[in-house]
Amino acid sequence: RAEEVGKTVRSAGSEALVVQADLASLEALDLLVKKTVERFGKIDILVNNGGVAEVQPIGTITPEAYQRIFDINVRATIFLSQAAVAHMSDGGRIINISSIAAQQANPGIAVYSASKAAIESITRVMAVELRDKGIRVTAVNPGPVLTDAFYSIPSESQDHFTKSFPVGEPEDIADVVVFLAGPKSRWVNGGTINTNNAAVF
């Protein structure tokens, strides 16, 4: 899939670099930044879009699931941002992908919900810390989106989400991210933008 995206970007006349990396690995995070800087010289925009979820009621959550979710959803966001900021200048942008789960009580996803609530808190703190460097940090909190990740969850969970919330397409979220990455969002900093068609607000 990543190679397909790279081909699409190149066919549109832009450059693309595809790097396979496990976000649970701190070494892989450094490799992502290293290869990007080697190719492009600097980093202008970072979108922290990696994420995993497991449906486990509070009584059956395992330490392994907890660790994996927080390593990928939270730790990777912190340390990939840290590595990228060293190569950003005034005007840099970091966009973190949260979820409506950060603000809603959906059974079975306590750990995932906590990880996304952490993302929104981290976004606020990073925005204040990096403001004087001219780097803006924002987040978006989509509801259910028809992606491979959505289709990978149990069918009963898919049914619950599609019946309970508006379901979006990837483009619905991407358009907001593009806006936040562009110059017209220059005064938007530190907030989480609702991108879920009023599922939460």
From TrEMBL:
Signal peptide: none annotated. InterPro entries: NAD(P)-bd_dom_sf, Sc_DH/Rdtase_CS, SDR_fam. Pfam families: adh_short_C2 (PF13561). SUPFAM superfamilies: NAD(P)-binding Rossmann-fold domains. Keywords: NADP. It comes from the Eukaryota. This is Uncharacterized protein.
